[in-house]
Amino acid sequence: MQYTLILQKKGVFQQCAVCRRIGRGSIARSAPLSRQRDLVPQRLYKPRRPLLFAAIPIGIAAMLGLGVYPSLVAQTTGPTPTLSSLKTVPVPGPSEAELGAFVRDKKAAIQLGKALFWDVKVGSDNRTACASCHFQAGADNRITNQISPGLLSGDRTFQLGGPNHTLKVSDFPLTKHAALDERATRMGDVNDIISSQGVFRSDFVGAGTLGATDRCSALSDALGNGGFGFHRDALNTRRVEPRNAPTVINAVFNFRNFWDGRSNNVFNGVDPFGMRNANALIWQEQNGLLRQVAATLPSSSLASQASGPPLSAIEMSCNGRPFVALAKKLLPLKPLSTQQIDQRDSVLSGLSDNTARGQTTYQALIKAAFQPTYWQSATPVTLSSANQQSPGNMDLIRHPKRNFDSMQVSQMEANFSLFFGLALQMYQATLVSDNAPYDQFAEGQNNALTLQQRSGLAIFQGQGKCINCHTGAETTNASFQSVVAKRLERMMMTDAGKAIYDTGFYNIGVRPTAEDFGVGGVDPFGFPFSETRMSQMGRADLLGSSFNAALYPAVQPNERLAVDGAFKTPTLRNVELTGPYMHNGGKSTLMQVVDFYNRGGDFAVENKANVPPDITPLGLTQSQKDDLVAFLLALTDDRVKFRKAPFDHPALCVPVGHKQDAAGKLVAEVGNALQAADASYQCLPAVGAGGSATALKPFMQLNPATR
Fold first, then answer.
1. pLDDT digits (tens, 9 = 90+) for 430-465
2. Cβ distance 563 to 498 under 8 Å?
3. Beta-strand (E) ranges in 63-129?
4. What angle do CA 244, 248, 250 make, to 5 degrees?
5. Exposure string (b/e) for 522-561, b if CB count within 10 Å is 16 or more?
6. Which of 55, 391, 537, 615 is 20 to 30 Å from 596 by CA-CA measure?
């Protein structure tokens, strides 16, 4: 399928706003300026790959109300294009040969990954699982003790409500405007972050044994004691992460993960940083001898991501816990030993009764899932203190490294980060929601979308400009398909200058750039997260995954970049259920998000050096906003909403703030005078493959179309 784009004259490009939005392959789809080609008469354009709502012919465009402009004439050749269901997009991952070098039984690896993801004993406190921040459609909807101060900007003070505050509807949006569609009318603003509570401040002492918690030394988190300020009434509260927790559902389609992209596409078997960490080595048995080797497994950002949070002193761990200590704690244990598993669980049903579960351990699951060359050696491994601390600190605020005595461990213990990361990646790769009403519509079920949702679709890809960053069936430019096609791109900026940026990462003016540099930040080894900046400094050799600098714009030493304050474009699938929104969690409803874009961002003027040109007032009416929100609801997969396989899960209880006495003061935990007691827990029952009769609700149970 090809289009011929005929312009009356080349000057139309400068004069016509519609023409400026014309991208490859479609006159009906708005494409960002970053993807413009030189517009000349009679030039042929051929789309690289299937795009969400891409290449809609004029007839369909007219039906959907997209509009056809007289200054442009489209001519279609070849077969009639169709909309793209996510079912048409291959799930990214290593090749069979690449994965097979490590994994010998995929089914066993997925079972191991699901157990580890949901097991609260992965946390030092035996109360914090990976799923503790990703239990609601892959995200987190708790409202008590979910505020973090502006830690990444150096702020340690709470502006909204302080530790243990329960969020109210009136707290949102965090940046308020007197006139919703006028960004110059800002009348209230806080730099606090709405995110997920993790663990208390403490230093790691030793691994828990026989299922016990890790041995840790509690430290005051008061500002006067060098803490972050998660402290009230002389007691520590659970720390809260400095960025909102994104959904893990469909995260497998991201080329890089985390908001700042620090979860590298290449998994080194040790930490999130790929080839940037020269000391990241795993142990392999070769001809009867144990050797340290480098792992460079491509298309494995989820494995990189999974290796970070278990050692985070904010999210899950006592400060300084090495991965080998987590191995010593978990390997002898039966999976999910304190949590119920539904007997119809799509993956864990074989472990659903205590008899079956008691017959296996995490050690046994690793043996079943992974190649023996990575665990079978009887030769002990001596780990120095430096070996134990070789992973890069994934916390955005660096913690001092701890010194430990040398220890002898097994090969399996030494390689536990490898097993943990790959198993979680294998499990999360199954969390694909590709049966939303939109997918059904794209597959030819015309009644899958209402007329209002079809109108919203037209706005999404037209006047709303949403498609410019949320392209493809994956609804993100940060997708594997989008990024491998073009890792770096040059675009026009709001001030008419040109800059190069990382594909899929944008500064859209949510917060002032200096508060959080996002992909413009720096990793523990002094390298920038940004691939553009890495290329500029001559270190493209560390990017991996077939990065070929010759395919991308040459980044000149002093060339302007647009990476500071830029964040990964999130998927919009299931967005009805994944609030609060934005990297700061600053919007509570989808209508607040639409208001944000309609006024052209909250801080786009202040951030103009890094803001793309599409962040500009849109001029949508309230009726158009309603239609757009209605369309976004069509991206919800009912299997996610009702926790049907593959989104079923074991039982999980997550802490929801801390106990207070009648006077409103925090109550200390029994046996720990430094720590506030957890209050009630939000408990999710175990759900089997058939799902639950109760639907998940939006954040704070708010109507997505309200403010």
1. 999 999 999 999 999 999 999 999 999 999 999 999
2. no
3. 72-77
4. 130
5. ebbeebbbbbbbbbbeeebebbbbebeeeebeebeeeeeb
6. 55
